Amino acid sequence: MNPDFILFTAYLEATDPGAPAKSFDAAMAVLKLRPDWFAAKLTTDADPIFNDVSPDRLGLLAGVLNGHHSSPELEAACVAAFRQARSALKSAPGMLPVRRAHALAELLLRLEAFSKLSEDDILWLFEQDEYAAPSLCFGLAVWCRKHPISPAVTELVRSLRAEEYDSPILDRLAATVVPSVEGMMDLARWENGLRCCGDREWQERASRWEEGKPASPEDATALAPTLDPDCSWNAEALKEAIRLHGWAVVSKLLQEARDTTEHPIPRVILNAWLNHFGGDQ
Amino acid sequence: MNRLDFAHRTAKHTLEACDESPDASEDALIFASKVLVDLVPFLDDGTKRRLTPAILKLIHRVPPARRPANLAWTFKSVLDRDDPLRSVVKELDATNRTARREWFERLKRERDATARQRESYLTRHA
Questions:
Q1: Predicted ipTM > 0.95
Q2: Looking at the domain assignment, is residue B1 inside a domain?
Q3: What does pTM read for this prediction?
Q4: Number of domains in chain A
Q5: A6 and B31: CB-CB below 8 Å?
Q6: Which of A64, A90, A117 is a domain's end point?
Q7: What are B's interface residues with A at a Cβ cutoff of 8 A?
Q8: pLDDT of residue A280
């Protein structure tokens, strides 16, 4: 009984472009049992896999791996294949190179190596791939944390936000890169929404307010102290925005958002952020 | 092209390979049992029924704490209500759960003992 043989047959099936969908799924179930083995094989056979396997299947195979299976060789092979897909679009226009690049970007994201892409790669991807947003916005947020943000990337984030995807990741990124009054209101809205998912007391009191019932002082006094801004879902985004743009700019936006919003809960949240992060300055 | 589908081919090969190697290592048996259990949903109904007794026999060879979990769920659609293999699956699940619980408890005892040793060392050398 040789596990390597079984893994190898699963690998052949998963990377065979002619394999039926059911066989592909079964082979993937086997590869999931030893993702480290699959990552090693992917590293040695990068070229044929990245070029011959369909982008859809490549995207599914990416799901077998995570950051633990990454290696500098695999990341380099993945970035090289991404650039090959980029240049293939010039010689053979069509959606296939873009879909392949999308699958490789997904793989880089799984390997926690999305930031290995260059600024040109990122701008190309979001320009060519209509599915890049919102699915790869998390990658873009990771990328922005590790690279200096140029005016072109700022413009990209601004335009993605203008497309109004309902995405907390994108709204957090926009609040960091291109902070605005609406952006701060959106952050407070997400904070309330995410808190309602895990905090029963918060949800009960928040729903009373959202139903338009008068905000009782008990609710306000009960909720405000439970909002520890350091544990906020958006604390990192706010800290990064302050680092990039300065407290004067961010506090002005927070104040304006607090004074503009008609909803009492976002007001409580914005006020808490204003008091808390102001204290750090 | 008329080819045997992957799940069927691999399940058959895995069972044959384990049959032919009575001295297969524990790790190889654990891997084989996981492969087989993961492939069951991809097998057609006839093959599932035909291979189930052999799969259960193989799972018996794996140490209880390391067998695939929740076998009842995997074989629910394969075995009829009155199939005697149902009780075999139930028994396997029960043994596995007990073994896993014992394993966790032993792990916890060992961890607590290490913590106590560390604490007493720190007290003595404070």
A1: no
A2: no
A3: 0.85
A4: 2
A5: yes
A6: A117
A7: 1, 5-7, 9-10, 13-14, 17-18, 20-21, 24, 27-29, 31-32, 34-35, 38-39, 42
A8: 52
